[in-house]
Amino acid sequence: MPQHPATENVNNSYFDGYYKEIWRAVIPDELTVKEVDFMIKYFDLSSASRVLDLMCGYGRHALALARKGVQVTAVDNLPDYFSEIKIIAEREHLPLTAIRADVAEYKPEGMFDLVICMGNSLNFFDSVQSQKIISTVSAHLKPGGHFLINTWTLAEIVIKQFRDNSWSEINGIKFLNESKYLFHPTRIETKSIMIAPGGIAETKTGVDYIYSLSEMESMLKTAGMTLGEVYSIPGKKTFSLGDPRAYLISRK
Prior knowledge:
This protein is of the alpha/beta class and 252 residues long. It has a domain at 26-154 and 210-251: Rossmann fold (3-Layer(aba) Sandwich). Helices cover 29% and strands 33% of the residues. The chain contains seven helices and twelve strands. The strands form two sheets. An eight-stranded mixed β-sheet has the order 3-2-1-4-5-12-10-11. A four-stranded antiparallel β-sheet has the order 6-7-8-9, with helices on one face. Helix 5 links the parallel strand 4 and strand 5 (141-151). Helix 2 (29-42) packs across helix 3 (60-67). The two termini are 33 Å apart.
């Protein structure tokens, strides 16, 4: 799986135009539909609901929720994502506000019924930054509001899923991944080499911090929230050791 941009960023990258298509191949639209349907039903969302989507990426959840009439604030630090979501929301007259900001420093306006952080995004941050983000989320959740976290680098996942070397091909682009499982802090550092059909290559590095369920629960508790259900398939299958992904639901 392609890693998120981290310590190495390449300006005017040949691959910039491919990232959206690559992520859609990794995370198919059908999964987004199922996740959004779950959110609507489980959290009882309506046109009166306010949802904050942190690290929204290209807006797969934010746009889908807004198209169902939910009021959405979508936040990401990447200009291409921000610009695309803003253009689509304006063109379709959606109840969506797009904001470009550093999530670790972002201070939301108002209170929300639901905050979501999907696609392993919270694991991009170390423990100090993660606690800061979680505390900010709690401060802007209405009483009884929820925080939904999607991750695939929980310790309980990585312990069975980790591979130090892998390769894949997505939309004609080859990915060669070299990963290291490191400690202090516990994390996976991955060097991804992307090779286009014409031989053009680019290298990026990514860091995913690893937290156990217990550590996640502790951070949520510190911020005044209670961890509830943990699913591997939202609303259908409770998470168990080694499942490839987890959805953590906490309540203020």
